[in-house]
Amino acid sequence: MTKSLDVVAIGNAIVDVIARCDDAFLSAQNIDKGAMTLIDADRAESLYAAMGPGVEVSGGSAGNTIAGLAALGGRGGYIGKVRDDELGKVFRHDITAQGVRFETASAIDGPPTARCLVLVTPDAQRSMNTYLGACVNLTPNDVPRDLIEAAQVVYLEGYLFDPPEAKKAFVEAARLAHASGGKVALSLSDPFCVDRHRAAFQELVTHHIDILFANEDEIISLFEVKRFDDALQKIRFEVETAALTRSERGAVVVHRDEVHVLDAEPVETVVDTTGAGDLYAAGFLHGYTRGDDAVACGRLGAIAAAEVIGHVGARPEADLKALVAKRLS
Amino acid sequence: MTKSLDVVAIGNAIVDVIARCDDAFLSAQNIDKGAMTLIDADRAESLYAAMGPGVEVSGGSAGNTIAGLAALGGRGGYIGKVRDDELGKVFRHDITAQGVRFETASAIDGPPTARCLVLVTPDAQRSMNTYLGACVNLTPNDVPRDLIEAAQVVYLEGYLFDPPEAKKAFVEAARLAHASGGKVALSLSDPFCVDRHRAAFQELVTHHIDILFANEDEIISLFEVKRFDDALQKIRFEVETAALTRSERGAVVVHRDEVHVLDAEPVETVVDTTGAGDLYAAGFLHGYTRGDDAVACGRLGAIAAAEVIGHVGARPEADLKALVAKRLS
To answer: Do residues B228 and B246 lie in contact, with contact meaning Cβ atoms separated by under 8 Å?
Structure first.
């Protein structure tokens, strides 16, 4: 069966509000540095009031990944829930303007479009505070069978396990993908997210996931082990393909019997690490869906990740296609 | 009389939506490269639909200036009209988070918060398309006497001449400023804006303005002369202080009998020229209100302008105070 799309991603549709701050601000606000913390509407308001001036950029983990895939020339679709408000229009504009097929209906009532208050410290580390807003209204009804069946890979972000109905949408999408001969990819998203849903993630990884993306902290958390290598030995026999990222130490890519230890790409100045993992997945999946080998997939992931950490925001700014052509020449 | 504020700025309160494009896109959309074009709601919608993915940052010429002044450590106030919508909240948050006093009530009906669709070409030139939205509802009633009287300098952007009621607010603010012993500063904003309102600007400059900011094209347009030097000879006898900026050729600062020809600051990579003039005015006025001489004011202006053209968006990103300290050491 011919697939008209390379990847369909499902995620929490979020607009990032990015501001710089110092470490003292994180302490004063009791923010876990480097983590993603879920916050309610009141906390979102009080934290926003305390934050410095911001920049608004469309975000959402899987949204960033599919935007990156499209920027690389891949054919992408997206499923996620915004409201029919100004930030919802911004999200919809940005992802469709990138060439991604995005047809999920906007909610016409209920909470506003989700936002993530991203605080970037001088060491370029990002601490995220997410108000899920309209994302809690994503349900299995928002997963169109034809869209899933059209995709070579259905990509799911682990963060979807936080809103309960979205988790059901996630499971339904995985089922439809496999039934139509597609692969199912998962990003573990965040070590705290893994903590919140460990048993469910373990079951999912063992039985339903073909391609797993995780960073070192996440894969260690998933298996509750002490060392990266312990997690590596476990994951090898759980999924067909795994890309385990380790920041400046590069990544380990496992594919069937192969194990590759790959270096990170050079970055001039790390400005904001938001989206590094998302863009790694974008590059990797673009290579994967066009039939590249595991090493080439990893290289593409590393190049895309290096671009996004060189500027503020988690969507690619440079002409990614041209950048890849230059780096690979 | 002691003044509790250094500068109060009045302007069109706008959120910028910034996207990259190529020259072919500008041609296809009939956009005057480098200019600020006023657009209506329908055009704003169709142009936004055609644009690539964007980044939202608070803007507005005078808003950028007063945010820059506050970032430098100056005491600033702002008058401008947003609506009580999401972008209005973003504008209010960003300017107050920068430490600027902003008390103008949000409109509770009428058009939405103004937005400027900024298209940045690979040469870093910006072409602006402004939908004035709620700005047309700024009236003389929005100019609080106590705020104007509290300021050493009242700073007005020429763009205010586009919405007719805002122009009245502008004239009222200038009158109150002079009556309380303050200075009145004006930025000519844009050569096309000068074309639209030349006679009014000439009258204003001759009779009511103490400090004039203009770039080369604007000052040439104001006096309808051919060469920069012709304009320079005219402006010398019209205002007490004039700062005439010439991009990479630096600036000419006129103050009473003095005429200074100052170099531009070095910039590593020019990314987006949006806000260069606004931040020049910020630096200059910060120096002016703390009693620096004309040369020092010009240097501060050039440093602030150099920072803002090194990144996307017209509000300062770096710690401007620290940057100035480093550059001047």
So the answer is: yes
Two tokens, residue B77: 């106030």
Q: Which residues pair with B244 in a beta bridge?
A: B214, B252
B231 touches chain A (CB under 8 A): no
Q: Read out DSSP for B72-98? A: TT--EEEE---BSSHHHHHHHHHHHHT
Interface TM-score (ipTM) > 0.85: yes
Superfamily of domain B5-12+60-110+134-328: Ribokinase (3.40.1190.20)
Query: Using an 8 Å Cβ cutoff, are B151 and B8 in contact?
Result: yes
Tokens coding B70: 């506050």
Does residue A280 contact residue A305 with C-beta atoms inside 8 Å?
yes
For chain B, the C-alpha Rg in angstroms (whole number) is 18
For the domain with range A5-11+62-101+135-328, which CATH number is right: 2.60.120.330, 3.40.50.2000, 3.40.1190.20, 3.30.565.10? 3.40.1190.20
CB contact under 8 A, B53 and A20: no
Nearest to A65 by CA among A102, A11, A15, A18: A11
How much is the average pLDDT of A87-99? 97
E strands present in chain A: 5-10, 14-20, 36-38, 55-58, 76-79, 101-102, 114-120, 126-131, 151-157, 183-187, 211-215, 241-245, 251-255, 258-262
- Across the beta sheet with B183-187, the strand order is B101-102, B76-79, B5-10, B151-157, B183-187, B211-215, B241-245, B251-255, B258-262
pLDDT grade for A122, boundaries at 50, 70 and 90: very high
Model confidence pLDDT, tens digit, residues A197-234: 999 999 999 999 999 999 999 999 999 999 999 999 99
pLDDT at B1: 54
- Please give the sequence-ordered ranges of beta strands (E in DSSP) within chain B, or none if there are none: 5-10, 14-20, 36-38, 55-58, 76-79, 101-102, 114-120, 126-131, 151-157, 183-187, 211-215, 241-245, 251-255, 258-262
Under a CB-based contact definition with an 8 Å cutoff, are residues A208 and A184 in contact? Answer: yes
Report the distance separating Cα B313 and Cα A80, nearest Å. 28
Chain A residue with Cα closest to B90: A54
Measure the CA–CA gap between B102 and B107, rounded to whole angstroms: 14
Chains A, B: CB pairs < 8 Å: 65
CB < 8 Å to A55, chain B: 55-57, 313
CA distance between the termini of chain A: 34
Low-confidence ranges of chain B (pLDDT < 50): none
**Nearest-CA residue of chain B relative to A51?**
B97
Q: What is the CB neighbour count within 10 angstroms for residue B166?
A: 28
Mean pLDDT value across chain A? 94
pLDDT band at A1 (very low <50, low <70, confident <90, very high): low
pTM of the shown model: 0.91
Domain boundaries along the sequence of chain B: 5-12+60-110+134-328
